[in-house]
Structure prediction request, 740 residues.
Amino acid sequence: MKKLAIFTVLSLAVSTAHAAPQNPLIIEQQGSFAIGGIVKTSEGKYNSRPEMTQTKTSNEFMDVYKVNITNGGQTLHGDHATVSYQIPSNVKSLPLVFLHGAGQSMRTWQTTPDGREGWNTLFLRKNYAIYLVDQPRRGWSGRSTVDGSIPAIPDDQFWFAQFRMGEYPHFFKGVAFPQDAASLDQFFRQMTPNTGPFDASVISNSLKALFDRIGNGVLVTHSQGGSPGWLTGIKVPEKVKGIVAIEPGNFPFLEGEVPPIVESAYGNITADSVKKADFDKLTKMPIIIYFGDNIAEEPSKIQGEDQWRIRLLLAKKWAEVVNKHGGDVQVVHLPDVGIKGNTHFMMQDLNSAEVAEHLDGWLKEKGLSN
Amino acid sequence: MKKLAIFTVLSLAVSTAHAAPQNPLIIEQQGSFAIGGIVKTSEGKYNSRPEMTQTKTSNEFMDVYKVNITNGGQTLHGDHATVSYQIPSNVKSLPLVFLHGAGQSMRTWQTTPDGREGWNTLFLRKNYAIYLVDQPRRGWSGRSTVDGSIPAIPDDQFWFAQFRMGEYPHFFKGVAFPQDAASLDQFFRQMTPNTGPFDASVISNSLKALFDRIGNGVLVTHSQGGSPGWLTGIKVPEKVKGIVAIEPGNFPFLEGEVPPIVESAYGNITADSVKKADFDKLTKMPIIIYFGDNIAEEPSKIQGEDQWRIRLLLAKKWAEVVNKHGGDVQVVHLPDVGIKGNTHFMMQDLNSAEVAEHLDGWLKEKGLSN
Prediction:
């Protein structure tokens, strides 16, 4: 009976991917822009006609480039975020701003690995304006003011484990992730590296600039995006009207109320902390935190099960602390509400539309969907 | 009088950027996917439960990551392109596939630096299906199978010169690029670096895979994208029904008919060459090559004027050679058809819609717009 149920879920997913076209999207405006960032300037004075020396066999513009970058007084515009937006017809008043997690870009929120519509399009269909972010030093926002290096190290299996698809090469039983080779290939190719050091402060500065530009909205973060997300809530609390955190990695506890290190065989977590004035800002907005399935209750030898065990534990502790101080934080462990099999990428799983419905319900309940 | 004319152009541009909304876009389908690429595998056998050693003070998942990447038998899915597509209502039969140039991503084709609609949206409004590409090792396609390094070197002024905005800090007189500080800031922030070595063969492999997936289409390249574009035409000539090259950097001459090195104080060009069987493929499809304004006729001391002088020269020679062998190559030097002031980024210049109209006319003339 259990097997049959899983089979049905998979069949539904495949038929969705190849379903007859839905109603067309009516888009009032779409585009992209850079936001935030700084300017780094080299010493010296720029000379637009530098001394050039070249041999007759030199080739292409990289030679002139090499001469020219030793030419001082130049600028580097970097550390900005890049934003892609779509405004549908009959738009709701609060847009959704989506920030990806580690190793990802705004692709996280787009087409699923098996070709279904991503959350960007699902929420457009619900008449939310959508702002997708590539954080500073990732994807389209590759210009970093700090040097970066990108070693080409095979590590897909690490991510397969960490993202809770299963224990490679085996998927977890009943996992809500498409298990065909083509989908997994697409999933791995969705990853894209840091072009400079990850910096939650730099990222939250760019998100602050984004909210300053677009006004009030709801911030949706995934995984590593959680920490810059909390910082953004602290930096522009008057404009961040709600935070949705999908399996965030850490939580800003109030100084003095930080729990001890949470231990896991696969890497401990030291909880983050912030000062009272900052902590209080996060008590002023509704917050929902989602966790998926296959998260252990007791220490487990399986990487994904154990890594998210300690984070779910911390999430629950954080919610207690924030709510004790007057906040409104809800932790939703999806299996507890009957949504099963989710990986770390619930916005791409086979039941991604069901998770989206749950989130939409929360947005409505909190008055963020008008 | 001339000054007045320029003022009028600028005013128009600003008013366009803030114009009353146009008709909404009707989008039948949109999404993104990875295409092409290879898999690199590390030696050894993957162990999903590696020996972990950590201190109590270790923190966050980067520790477990460091242990795990020494764990062999892992894969890296890399060197793919990433594609973002939109299919409008009443779609024409041939889609347009857009490939960016050096230091750019698909952002090249999106919103202009001063906030007007990019060519992606302008051509959607003309009912073309649009496929925007981030080439392998750039933007969203950051996973490279070869190590990369990204030094944070200030070089905006080099690009300002190379992209023919002017001689920094001065814009060329009458240049069709918005001259306010905010637009230039947006333009610089549109750049994003290579995450691995530029490789025209890797890029054209991914474009071949794209045409194999979507079928017949027209390829539009910009600048450094020119060379992988020609290679794509050679690799899938039956599906590339036309090539539009915006200021390409080089041209594949027929072996034995390669012109001598073209000299410029800012870097010579050695013309590319290909074998007869490959060259012949490019004689089977219509090709149009666009060059903008402020390109010198005689050697110039100004970088941009001189660098594009030698490339325009080479383009004209290449067109002669291809046409002599039965091809259909047209070189359009925009000032010759009354379109003035264009930089290297004619798809973003103040008159970008006018250039788009010219291109649309060519597509119609060649039967590529049905």
In short: Residues 1-20 of chain A have pLDDT under 50 and may be disordered.
